[in-house]
Amino acid sequence: MTTANLNPERATEAVEGRRTFISWITAGALVLSAGLMGIFNLIFLRPRVTYGPPSKFRVGKPDGYSSGAEVVFPAARVVVRRRGDEFAAISLVCTHLGCVVNPTDSGFDCPCHGSKYDSAGNVVAGPAPKRLSWYRIAQAPNGELEVDKRKEVDSGTYLEVKA
Amino acid sequence: MLEDKPTYERFPIRPGKTYGLMCVVPTATEATKIETEKQVHAWPAALTRELALFVLTLVILSVVALLFNAPLEEPASRLHPPNPAKAPWYFLGLQEMVAYSAFWGGIGIPGLLVLLALAAPYLERKPGGEGVWFHSSRSAANWVFLGIVGTLLVLTAIGTFFRGENWAFVVPW
Amino acid sequence: MSMDKVQIPWTDSDGKPGFWGALHSLPRRVYHSVFRSRPIPANDLERSQAVAANFFFHLHSAKVQERTLRFKTTLGLGLLSLYTFVILVVTGILLMFYYVPTPVEAYDRMLDLRGAVFFGTFLRNLHRWSAHAMVGLVFLHLMRVFLTGAHKAPREFNWMVGIVLFLLTLLLSFTGYLLPWDQLAFWAIVVGTSIASYAPVVGDELRYVLLGGDSVGAEALLRFYVLHVAVLPVVLTTLIGLHFWRIRKDGGLAKPREK
Questions:
Q1: Does residue C102 belong to any structural domain of this protein?
Q2: How many CA atoms lie within 13 A of B18 on its CB side?
Q3: Which residues 186-245 in chain C show a CB within 8 A of chain B?
């Protein structure tokens, strides 16, 4: 028994089987814990809170916009548009690679890879794969307009505000 | 091997040690009779060359660093994207491809190229041509390789020099 | 083969060191406690020892083929890549003493490096140009290896390590690109990380983890900084060690077959 303990070559078949079994269990446990460790570390790297600008923000009272006005909010990268009594918020982030598009007479142009959008945010030219996002705009209790960048709406969705 | 007798105390001198560097023989080994290649001592032949190359590298880069300042533009502002916004030069080939298709230019083709590069020695299995520049038996592989490199260089050059505002094609002169 | 009796220098003729004898031999003892070979080796055996017994030199074999030393064989590109990396590590560590990875501070620190820190401009320039040089040299080295057929068996694995080293070089350069927090840096990273989001399935998640949020901001700067100064250099250095070790284990540089 003692020799078998020290020298695997002298192990009996029964001992050998047991050894193999224990080796496999040990190896499995090690691989499993290493894998779990790796996955936990990956989850650790994914932030649960972000420190960036908030996704909901207020853009002032409807009176502040003249009819037909397009007001750019650079920090939020959103343009707020008024048509008659209707309001909409359109993203200024190019859907291609995240550059900020510039409003032009015909719509929006991306300075990075030459994508062009019409005034509704639909792709006219360039590599952009989809239209600019439209965000939900709502009226807060105090009458101010509030844009929520978490909530996308169909293009052409306007909020009607009774004067 | 009179020359190889140690002339000063080295340590550890351990008589019990059964292996070690005892002497250096310049001729074919007795056991194999295989003629050794022309060899030189790493000290000083290799080491002095390496030192010289390092000094040369440092001098050239220092001169460049003294003559040319590293670029520093305006502070970062998410409100004012530069037009055109360009990646570092070595990614401009990628950016040029990205301008055609974001997935294929940025992920698909580069990913395939990396996989192809990793697989190259397993694809090119026929032995021969090692250690020789442009060996004739490997011309097909070399042409494919140079073709890919050339394409990347052309794309990089286009992205670097021929792209202006809104990524429109411009002629630099 | 019997060794000649070597007189140990700090002994008198009886083999007993006197006080002055011991003092006289002290520098020698200290030297030999550190180095196991003479500063200038006198014969072939000592030349071999000088390489084999030195931690830094023992990457080399004691003797090298004359062919590998010829400039035409490698154009020195692998070594040049290593040297630019060494310069980058040294200058990079020095720059770290002044750099602060926050959007508020980073750009000001760049201006300080340029204006207020002695030697700052030079070190930043050297770091920047060496980084560009390294990307180019590593790629040229890759080309050299392929065009001389040095990637073929038995060196397949080392070739793959080399490809990974090239990608790591690009990543290092890319993560460093953001750190000055100027317009060039910011928008290059906005574009570059957006490319990552096009990766199938994991794309958006990858970009989110890389940036620590939805857009390039303080979190992204911190993450790129940690990657640039800690994670990637450690991985790169380790793989460089593996790369060099494999050169020897694979039989040195690829050599032409005998006719």
A1: yes
A2: 0
A3: 186-188, 190-192, 194-196, 198-200, 203, 215-216
